[in-house]
C-alpha cells in the first residue's frame, strides 16, 4: 500500500527524525554539563533499593500529584500516555510508509490495542481537563491568587497543544485502520476507535497523513524544547525521574524537618577550623549543588507551591515557584561563563536601566535580564533591583520555613533548603539581614535566649507549682523517665509559661517522673539556624549536646528521653542535633499526653462544652508529620465539638513565626497571623487550639486585635491542647469547665477555669 504520498511523507519523517535526535542529544549533553558545574553532594546516591521504590511509587502511583485529586488523575493519564504510548510513535513511522503496518511481535495483540485505546482516550480527556483548569485558574481571571501567576503561559499552551494533537492523532490512526479494514483485532479491544470509525472514510492515504502529522508534531516538540533548556514545563517529563530518585531523604519523605549542615565542595564545614576555600552558603549560582541545579531545571511552573505559600497569600513578594524559576533562568543564561565558553568583563554593568517585565510584575517588580551577557555573569544572587540581584532581599526574608511549598511540590524540589542556603551567605558573608533580627542573634550569643533576659528567669515558673519539680544536677537518677525541655518561650513568655505549667501538672498527675534543666538550659539554636547564622547554631547545639550528654550519662539509647512543648525545639533536638553528636529520643508533649490518655494514666472526666478548631503548627505537622496526637487529645475530652479549618494538616496555613520571622517586622502585605486567625474565626469557635508557643503568641496577638476592633467575641480564646486537657480533669462543677473561659489571669490558673469572663466564673 506504499504509493508516492507515502514515499514523500516517509522520507521527510526520516530526515526530520535525524535532525530532532541530533538536537536532543546536544541539549541533553549541554544540560548535563551545566548541572555538573554545581557543587558535589555525595549524600544522594544510596541506598539504591529504597530510592527506586520511591521513584516507582511517586511516578507510577502519582502519589504527590494526587494530593489534588482531579488534576492528579488527569495528569496521570497524560503521563502514562506520554511513556506508555511511545510505541505508537514508532508505529507511526511504519504507517507513514505503509498504512497497514503493525508493530512486530505486538502486532494486533488485543490487550495492547485496548491499552492504547483507553490510555489514548484518557490522554485526550486528561489534557482537555488540564487546559480547562489552566484557563479557569488563569491570572486574567484570578489575578495574583492564580497559581499560574508568573508562569510562562505561552510555553504551557505549546505543551498542551502538542499533547492534545498527538492524542487525537493516536485515536484517529486507529479509527482509520478500522474504517479502512486494515485491522483484524476484535471490536472490544478498540471501543473508542470503533466509535470514531463510524464517521471516518475508508482512506489509507489519510491514515498516512495523520501519522505524518503525529510524527511532525512530536519531533517539532523535541526540537523546540532542545533549543530552550529552561523550559521546565516540558523538560520535567525527563528530569523529574532523576529529581525524585535523588531527593534528600532515601525513605521517600520530603525535604523538611532538619536543615542540612552547611557544606562546601561536598563536605560539612568545620566551623572551628574552616578551610580557606570553603564556600559559606550560596552567594553565586555556581555555589549550589548539582542537585540544586537539577531542582531548578525540573520546575514545572505548576504553581502548587505558590498557591500554598503564606507569604504569597498575604501580599508579599515571595513566590517559591518564581524563586526557583529565577534561579533556573539565571543558571542557564550564565551557563557559558560557568562552562568556560565565555569570559566575563572585569567590571559589572549598570543595572539601573532594568524595567519590570510582564512575567516578573507579579513578584518584586524585577525584570529578568534576557540572554547570555556580562550582566548575567556579574549579577549577585541576592540583591536589590539597582544591584541587579536575581532574588530580591524582601523575597528571601519573607519565608517562614513553613514547608508548604516542599510538601506540595509534585517533583520534590527543595525550596526551603535553597532559601536557607542563600540566607546563610547573606548573614555569614554579607552581614546583610533585617536589623531587628540582629538583636535576636546578639541576645542568643550573650544571654542564651532570643529575648535577652537573664538565664535565672528560666526557673521562675517553677515557683508557682504546688509540687516539687526536680532540677537536673548531674546525671539524672534512673527513676526519672523524661527530661522536660522547657524551651525559651516556655520559660520566659507569660502565655507559654501557662502551657509549661499545664504540661508539668499533667505529667505529675499521670505519675511521670521528669526533671528540668532550669537555668542550665539555653536556646536550641533554631532561630539562629533558620535565620541563616549556622555558626551560632553550631555553637549553641554543641553546648546543649554537652549538657544533655552529661544529664544522660550512663544511659543507653532508648532511655535518653526528652519531652518538649515547642515544635521548633522538638525538631532541633530530635532531628538536627544528631548532626553534632546528640542522639536522643525526643517527643512532643502532645505525643506523650495522648499516650498517657490512651494508657488510662490521664482520664478526662469533666465535660468542656466548647467548640474548638485546631491549628497545626508547621514544625509539628508538615515538618515532623505529627497530626494525630493533638486531635486524639481533643477527641478524648467530653463535651468538646471540633471542626477543622479549610487549610489543615499537610495544607495547614502558617502562623507567621517560623523561619525566625518571629523576630522580624512584618512590613509588607497582610499579617500572616491575622489571615490565619480570620480563617479560624470564620468557623465561629469558642477556642482556637494549637500546640506551639509561637503559634499561641501569633494567634493570640491577632485575636486580641480582632476583639479590640469588635470583630471577635470576647469569650474566644487561644489555648494549647494541654490546657484543654487539664481543664477537663478539673473536678466537676469547677468554674469554666462546662462553658469554658478565657485564659485565667492568675498564675496558678493555667487551664483558665477561674476567669471572670465566663458565665460560670466568679461574678463582679
From TrEMBL:
Q: Which PANTHER family match?
A: IRON-SULFUR-BINDING OXIDOREDUCTASE FADF-RELATED, IRON-SULFUR-BINDING OXIDOREDUCTASE FADF-RELATED-RELATED
Q: Where is the 4Fe-4S ferredoxin-type domain?
A: 290-320, 387-419
Q: What's one Pfam family the UniProt record gives for this protein? A: CCG
Q: Which PROSITE patterns match?
A: 4FE4S_FER_1, 4FE4S_FER_2
Q: What is this protein called?
A: Fe-S oxidoreductase
Is Transmembrane given among the entry's keywords?
yes
Stored Gene3D superfamilies:
Alpha-helical ferredoxin (1.10.1060.10), Transmembrane di-heme cytochromes, Chain C (1.20.950.20)
Q: Where are the transmembrane segments?
A: 6-28, 68-90, 110-132, 157-176
Amino acid at each position: 500500500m506504499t504509493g508516492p504520498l507515502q514515499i514523500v511523507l516517509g522520507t521527510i519523517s526520516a530526515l526530520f527524525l535525524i535532525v530532532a535526535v541530533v538536537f536532543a542529544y546536544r541539549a541533553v549533553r549541554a544540560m548535563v554539563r551545566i548541572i555538573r558545574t554545581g557543587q558535589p553532594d555525595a549524600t544522594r546516591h544510596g541506598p539504591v533499593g529504597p530510592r527506586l521504590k520511591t521513584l516507582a511509587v511517586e511516578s507510577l502511583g502519582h502519589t504527590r500529584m494526587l494530593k489534588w485529586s482531579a488534576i492528579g488523575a488527569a495528569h496521570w493519564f497524560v503521563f502514562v500516555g506520554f511513556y506508555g504510548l511511545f510505541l505508537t510513535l514508532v508505529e507511526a513511522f511504519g504507517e507513514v510508509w505503509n498504512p497497514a503496518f503493525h508493530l512486530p511481535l505486538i502486532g494486533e495483540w488485543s490487550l495492547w490495542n485496548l491499552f492504547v485505546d483507553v490510555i489514548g482516550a484518557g490522554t485526550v480527556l486528561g489534557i482537555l481537563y488540564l487546559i480547562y483548569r489552566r484557563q479557569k485558574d488563569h491570572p486574567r481571571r484570578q489575578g495574583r491568587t492564580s497559581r499560574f501567576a508568573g508562569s510562562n503561559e505561552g510555553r504551557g499552551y505549546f505543551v498542551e497543544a502538542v499533547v492534545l494533537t498527538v492524542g487525537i492523532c493516536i485515536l484517529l490512526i486507529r479509527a482509520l485502520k478500522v474504517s479502512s479494514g486494515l485491522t483484524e483485532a476484535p471490536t472490544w479491544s478498540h471501543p473508542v476507535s470503533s466509535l470514531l470509525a463510524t464517521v471516518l472514510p475508508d482512506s489509507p492515504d489519510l491514515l498516512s497523513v495523520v501519522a505524518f502529522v503525529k510524527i511532525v508534531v512530536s519531533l517539532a516538540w523535541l526540537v523546540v524544547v532542545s533549543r530552550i533548556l529552561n523550559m521546565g514545563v516540558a523538560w520535567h517529563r525527563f528530569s523529574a525521574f532523576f529529581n525524585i530518585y535523588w531527593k534528600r531523604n532515601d525513605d521517600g519523605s520530603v525535604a523538611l524537618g532538619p536543615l542540612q549542615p552547611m557544606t562546601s565542595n561536598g563536605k560539612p564545614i568545620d566551623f572551628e577550623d574552616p578551610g580557606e576555600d570553603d564556600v559559606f552558603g550560596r552567594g553565586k549560582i555556581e555555589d549550589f549543588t548539582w542537585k540544586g541545579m537539577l531542582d531548578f531545571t525540573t520546575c514545572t511552573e505548576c504553581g502548587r507551591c505558590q498557591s500554598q505559600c503564606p507569604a504569597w497569600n498575604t501580599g508579599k513578594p515571595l513566590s517559591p515557584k518564581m524563586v526557583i524559576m529565577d534561579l533556573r533562568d539565571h543558571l542557564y543564561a550564565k551557563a557559558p561563563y560557568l562552562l568556560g565558553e565565555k569570559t566575563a568583563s572585569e567590571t559589572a554593568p549598570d543595572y539601573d536601566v532594568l524595567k519590570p517585565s510582564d512575567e516578573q510584575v507579579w513578584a518584586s517588580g524585577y525584570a529578568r535580564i534576557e540572554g547570555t551577557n556580562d550582566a548575567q555573569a556579574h549579577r549577585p544572587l541576592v540583591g536589590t533591583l539597582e544591584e541587579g540581584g536575581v532574588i530580591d532581599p524582601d523575597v528571601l526574608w519573607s519565608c517562614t520555613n513553613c514547608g508548604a511549598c516542599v510538601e506540595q511540590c509534585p517533583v520534590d524540589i527543595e525550596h526551603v533548603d535553597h532559601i536557607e542556603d542563600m540566607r546563610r551567605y547573606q548573614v555569614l558573608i554579607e552581614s546583610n539581614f533585617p536589623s531587628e533580627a540582629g538583636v535576636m542573634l546578639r541576645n542568643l550569643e550573650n544571654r542564651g535566649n532570643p529575648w535577652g533576659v537573664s538565664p535565672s528567669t528560666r526557673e521562675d515558673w517553677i515557683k508557682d507549682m504546688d509540687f516539687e519539680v526536680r532540677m537536673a544536677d548531674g546525671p539524672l537518677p534512673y527513676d526519672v523517665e523524661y527530661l522536660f525541655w522547657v524551651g525559651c518561650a516556655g520559660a520566659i513568655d507569660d502565655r507559654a509559661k501557662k502551657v509549661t505549667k499545664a504540661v508539668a501538672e499533667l505529667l505529675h498527675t499521670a505519675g511521670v517522673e521528669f526533671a528540668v534543666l532550669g537555668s542550665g538550659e539555653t536556646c536550641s539554636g533554631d532561630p539562629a539556624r533558620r535565620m541563616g547564622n549556622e555558626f551560632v547554631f553550631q555553637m549553641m547545639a554543641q553546648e546543649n549536646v554537652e549538657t544533655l550528654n552529661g544529664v544522660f550519662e550512663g544511659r543507653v539509647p532508648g532511655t535518653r528521653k526528652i519531652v518538649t512543648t515547642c515544635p521548633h525545639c522538638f525538631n532541633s533536638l530530635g532531628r538536627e542535633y544528631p548532626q553534632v553528636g546528640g542522639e536522643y529520643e525526643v517527643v512532643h508533649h502532645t505525643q506523650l499526653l495522648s499516650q498517657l490518655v490512651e494508657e488510662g494514666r490521664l482520664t478526662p472526666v469533666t465535660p468542656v462544652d466548647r467548640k474548638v478548631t485546631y491549628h497545626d503548627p508547621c514544625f509539628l505537622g508538615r515538618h515532623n508529620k505529627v497530626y494525630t496526637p493533638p486531635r486524639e487529645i481533643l477527641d478524648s475530652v467530653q463535651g468538646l465539638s471540633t471542626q477543622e479549618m479549610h487549610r489543615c494538616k499537610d495544607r495547614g496555613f502558617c502562623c507567621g513565626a517560623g523561619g525566625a520571622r518571629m523576630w522580624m517586622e512584618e512590613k509588607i502585605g497582610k499579617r500572616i497571623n491575622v489571615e490565619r486567625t480570620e480563617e479560624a474565626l470564620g468557623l465561629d469557635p469558642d477556642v482556637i487550639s494549637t500546640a506551639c508557643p509561637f503559634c499561641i503568641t501569633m494567634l493570640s496577638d491577632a485575636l486580641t486585635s480582632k476583639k479590640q476592633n469588635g470583630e471577635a467575641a470576647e469569650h474566644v480564646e487561644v489555648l494549647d491542647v494541654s490546657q484543654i486537657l487539664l481543664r477537663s480533669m478539673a473536678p466537676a462543677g469547677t468554674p469554666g469547665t462546662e462553658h469554658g473561659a478565657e485564659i485565667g489571669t492568675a498564675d496558678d490558673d493555667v487551664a483558665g477555669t477561674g476567669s471572670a469572663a465566663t458565665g460560670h466564673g466568679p461574678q463582679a
